[in-house]
Fold these 3 entries.
Entry 1:
Amino acid sequence: MYELINNECIIGQLTIINDKSDEMLINVQGKYLNENQPWVENKIVFRLNNTNTLNIDIIPNDCILWYDGCNTCIANNGILSGCTKIMCFTEDPPECRNYITSGH
């Protein structure tokens, strides 16, 4: 199998239902660099966690714009909806980026 060193390879992007954690099983194939010899790797298991469910307990009720470390979401009483869908290679610490303010 060809091994990437100091590189990342995106093989897919999934959207999963809130409160859903699961596993994904995939098969991949390709060719070695500078060779014409193919390779195959079957039954690779990825364990998936939904980041929205991991952060749900730390989102303040007065937060209206939540950054989960990768994407920005609309928040209402600690519940997320309407998130951006940016593919992220690294994650920052989650934080509230905008709070409810009074109109005075």
Entry 2:
Amino acid sequence: MNATEIATIAYTLLRRWPGNVTLWQLMQEHNDLQVYVAGGFLRNIALGQRLSKDIDLFLGGPSVEQFLNRLSRRGHVTPNAYGKWNWRPSAKCTQYFDLLPIRDFRVAPRRFFAITELLTHFDFSCNSIALDLRTGRITDPCGGIESCRRRELKMNRYDNPEYRPVDPANPLTEGAARWFRGLHYAAQLNLQIEPRTRRWLIANQHYLSMKEIFASVQYEPDLSRLADVAKDASAKGSGRKAKCIRS
């Protein structure tokens, strides 16, 4: 599937999405607002997987807060994990938009203000695809479409030493979160783990000690692929410890 096909399917599905009319009405009233769809919704389209129950909307531009406040008054909002809201047209609706201001989405030690730069810091390439809702243009800085075509898990970032814990009250590190997410999505989406990512997963099996912490703040990770990774490490290892890959 290519970028044009992904965009076409995404627009078709969005037209059926609850609250889509309200979203577009407010977008027309805030011409400076940048609105991108990214993450699992596009990834699952590219992989031919069942669609997720949410659509991640990444927002940029001067009127982000005004747009969010107006949208919140025209539906039902609940807090999301990134400091903003999940929005749906009514409390009974099970599908929702995940509203994520680009400047507040922390995936690295610093803030980002452009979608392309932000995408390069997403955890793995299949997630790093964005659709500009105004122009229909697909942004794919990490080769995510090709990774989806190959059904391949390829991490973009690893456990950079600059990464602090996810938040001051949470000892889960960014590297550990990416480790669990990599294994989880490799299993859930039936992705082959490419060699460099596999070496990094092998080298950082100590993150397993943070499983309970990860599950308490994120979700119960599917670690069914861990046995294969560990087996691979045993087959290749001659007692030498694998080197941790840094990006």
Entry 3:
Amino acid sequence: MFELPPTLSQTVAAALAEDLGGDPNGIGWSDLTTETLIPANTYARGVIVFQEPGVAAGLIVIPEVYHQLAVRMGVPQAEINVKRLAREGDRISANQAVAEITAPARIILMGERVCLNFLAALSGIATMTRRFVDLVNNSGIRILDTRKTTPLFRDMEKYAVRVGGGLNHRRHLREQVIIKDNHLALLTGGSPILEALRRTSAADVGRVIIEVEDLAGLQAAATRGAEIIIYDNAPPEKLRAAGAWLREKFGASPKRPLLEASGGINLENVKQYAEAGVDRISVGGIIHSAPVLNLSLEIHPVTGA
């Protein structure tokens, strides 16, 4: 079971308001075409189908969409039946059905595009993440995301990364200290890395992650208490040298900082980075460059309802 996105309900409400008009509280929601053409007493069965293979993510959205629609449109919850035919994280084949909704036809059509948009985007991220994870699977190295996310959609995208087998970096800036190049650029006098670590130590902010650009910076950070060192935009040979230095310096000590590769990593070269002796690999592209999958909803009348 994957931890649900903390903003799931609010995000779905905003998406429905965007698609149906009105506001996120359900005031003004309407589907003019469906309400004009389809009688209120028409029932149907909608089946969501993957048109291409991928990893399923976002199935949790479907019952939330139809729950909110039922509440806002005055339809009894008993008339809405959502059946998931796959689990989050399952590998899905082309033309495979992943969910079935039996309900008043108007409600199914009102929620169709929102469900498909969520599933297509999140399954694309989970699929891309799984491809990276599969490539480094035998190394024990973890694939992480970054904060390069769609504004107001971060919780959902990071959820999809977890479904795909990846790990999340911090959710927001309040959560954790990650010292990056632009922070260091504003620390003048002496060594910016040492000054940054002195300040974080004095502030007692917990685990510190720091980004470095060369071996000297990595060595300074490692000997001043950084717990994770991101060696940014370093080729595999430099990471290999950095990992060897850390192992020689710290041996099997639990105080050895973890080494993270970041920058310029893609599906073609991720195995080279995994073989360079790093502990973690962060890839912004598993979110911002993930293709949106092609899904559809097939609807069928239900007689005798």
